[in-house]
Records
---
Amino acid sequence: MAIDVNNESGREVDEQAILDIARYALTRMRIHPLSELSVIVVDSDAMEQLHIQWMDLPGPTDVMSFPMDELRPPERDEDEPPEGLLGDIVLCPEVAERQGADAPTQHSMDEELQLLTVHGVLHLLGYDHEEPGEKAEMFGLQSAIVDGWRAEHGLEGPSPAPTTTS
C-alpha cells in the first residue's frame, strides 16, 4: 500500500503511527495492497479554509476526507478487492489536541490523530455517521480497528472514545 504522510502543520506529530494505523485499517478492511492514500497534517488556519470551502462551515475541524476512486471493501472474503486511489485525509493536530484533552478519557494529541486517521479511512471507504445506525456501525468499526492496532503494538487500554465532530 502506498501511503504518504505529509506534515505541513508546523507541529511535531507521530507520523509513523499515522502511517502504521492507516495501513492497519486498510489491511483490516481488505483494501487492495496496491491502493494509494495521502494523509496531510495541516494547521488550524489551513483546516478552517478547507472546512469553509468544502463544507461551508466556519472554524477548523479535526479531520476531513476527500475520496477519489470511491473504493469499497469487498463484500465477501473470496471477492478480489479493486485497487485505486483512495484519496486524501486531512488532519488538524491543534483540534486533535483540544479534543483529546476534553474527552471523558483524556488522551494525547497523537492518540487522537490515530483515531482520526481511522475515522478518515472509514469515510474514504464510504462509511458515514449521519444516521444512528450508520453511526453505530462506523464508530464500532473504528473502535475495533483502533483497539486491534493498539493491542498489536502493545499499547495499554482501550482506544480513546470517539470525539470527532466531522
---
Amino acid sequence: MSRQFVTEAVMVAIYGELLQTSVPVEYIVPYTSLLELYELQDSDELLMSSPEDDRYVKARIKELTAYFEEPLNKKKIQKALHMPWAKSPSILLGESARITVINAMDTAPYGELFDPVETELLLSSQREEAPVLTDQIELIQRIVEAAVPVHVFDIEDFQFAVETDNYTQHI
C-alpha cells in the first residue's frame, strides 16, 4: 500500500527527493495547483533566491507540465474534471511515485485565513484522510493556529513521514 500526501504540484517539481522514495508514494494534487505550474514557469518573478536555482526549478516545472500534457496523462487528468471531487487515474512519476489529480472545490470554509489553493489542499486532506506536505512554514503555523483537523508535514520531515506507520492520525 502506498503512502498518500496532499500537496501542491510545484512541490513535486521542485523537490526531487519526493520522486525517489523507498516505499510507494501517491501525491494527491488539487487541479488548481496544477494550473499554477503554468503561471510559475512563465513568471519573471524569482521562485528561488538565486537566478541559477530559479532557472533550474523553472526547467523542472516545464518538464512536469510537458509530462502532464502527454496524451495519456492529459486524458487521465481530464477524467477528474467532469465532477467535483473526482480523482484522475494515477500518473506514474517514477518507480515508486505517482500523482493523482483531484478536482477539489474551494467552498471557503476557512474564510480569510487561507487562499483558495490552500483551502483546496486542506479540504482534499480531510476528504482523502491524507496529510498535507508543504515547505511553507507560515502555512503550517496557520493550520495549527486555526486548529484545522489535518495532519501536516514540513517537506524537511518527508522521510520521517514516509517511514512512520501512523502518519495519517488526525490532530
